Amino acid sequence: MFTLKEVIFVKSIVDQKNRPKPYLPEFAFAGRSNVGKSSLINCLVNRSNFAHVSKSPGKTRTINYYQINDVFYLVDLPGYGFARVSKSEKKSWQKMIENYLIHNHYLKTVFVLIDCKVGLKKSDLELFEWLQFHLITFVIIVTKADRINRNGQSKIISELLATLRQVNRKQIIIFSAKTRQGREEILAEILRQTEDHPAAAQNN
Ligand code: GDP
Q1: If DSSP states are collapsed to H, E and C, what string results for 83-152?
Q2: Measured from the CB, is residue 33 less than 6 Å from ligand 1?
């Protein structure tokens, strides 16, 4: 059983050299703007407005670190894939995300969020390709699942498996911040990978 004891917003960074210490296992969250990333992080840490739930796409342009129980960090990456920004701005965010992902020995898993009503877009496919190329472990979270029924959920899983051939069923979690479906699965995935960390034993 996982008990949330301490949740701290540590800092926002744009450059990897400012990463917080101590170094702990990191679990990153990525996805297109408006995919429900802030709502998911709030749900995971049982807070209503911890990560900023924003109505204006693309507000979060920093990498935000949340420290949980002195055991691991949840890392909120900037949202991608919205239309109303310049090409150069897009490029600089992409660089920020890539630099974070590639130069990080503590990164355990990237959770990539896909909105069940939007499905896969080109920017998601590019990210998956990039993660696979760099051998970075990822799990797909299908968000806002309360907006579709069980049939719809099965359908989107089949579509993901058909499009992303290297992905298996275990790498897909169906989630809703409204019903909290999938929350335990995400936490279990995180705990599975922090079990070998010395501080984890005291906190479980
Ligand atoms: P972010 O931009 O990725 O951080 O997305 P937000 O968490 O700010 O959510 C974007 C919009 O989707 C907001 O209007 C949320 O209320 C809505 N939303 C987020 N999660 C869910 C969910 O699980 N179910 C439903 N129905 N709406 C959600």
Answers
A1: CCCCHHHHHHHHHHHHHHHHCCCCEEEEEEEEECCCCCCHHHHHHHHHHHHCCCCEEEEEECHHHCCHHH
A2: yes
